[in-house]
Amino acid sequence: MFSHHKSYITQCSLRTPDGELISNQINMVIIELSKLESILEKPIDEMSSLDMWSIFIGLADDPRQRTLINSIIERKEVLGMASAVLTAISKDEHERAKFMSRRKAETDRISNLLTAESRGEERGIAIGEEQARNITARKMKADGMSIEVISKYTGLSGNDIEKL
């Protein structure tokens, strides 16, 4: 972000366009994790708390830095607790992902069933209407009505009526 700064830490405050401080109670500390190489060479005894936290946050998942991370965790107890919390969160995230996957599959299954039922009902209604027209046409034909009249009331073609 700040390529012109060598430090991985940039502290900012809120100011008006003319430079007046808006509040001394709201400040930002921007940690550029991509610049951590500068502190990796420091002995742990010379690292500040912010150095240790930054290394932990930026490199905890890097297997090549495992020895350094473990040394920092041993040195700073709160980082050990943070490590335990992150491990628990990771497990919880994995469990949550499995739950969401199962939930999506079940939702998809129910949606497919409802869609199939809806299509089946539509087909059933269509088949039912066709059967009702055929029954009506048969009765009208049995009563001696003309094919033209039956066709007019049922919507069936003359050929279909003759086949009944």
Care to describe what's here?
The protein has helices at 37-40, 49-59, 66-75, 77-142, 147-154, 158-163; strands at residues 9-15, 21-31. Helix 4 runs antiparallel to helix 5. The radius of gyration is 38 Å and the shape is elongated. The chain has 164 residues and is mainly α. The longest helix has 66 residues, at 77-142. Strands 1-2 form a two-stranded antiparallel sheet. It has 6 helices and 2 strands, in the order E-E-H-H-H-H-H-H.
In short:
By secondary structure, the chain is mainly α.
Share of residues in strands = 5-15%
Mean pLDDT: 82
Shape: elongated
What strand line-up does the widest sheet have? 1-2
Based on secondary structure, the structural category is: mainly alpha
Q: What can be said about the biggest beta sheet?
A: 2 strands, antiparallel
User: End-to-end span in angstroms?
Assistant: 83 Å
- Helix content estimate: 55-70%
Poorly predicted runs of 5 or more residues = none
What is the string of SSEs from the N terminus onward? Answer: EEHHHHHH
What is the number of strand segments? 2
Radius of gyration (CA) equals 38 Å
Count of helical stretches? 6
List keywords for this structure.
mainly alpha; 6 helices; 164 residues
Present the secondary structure layout.
Elements: E1 9-15, E2 21-31, H1 37-40, H2 49-59, H3 66-75, H4 77-142, H5 147-154, H6 158-163
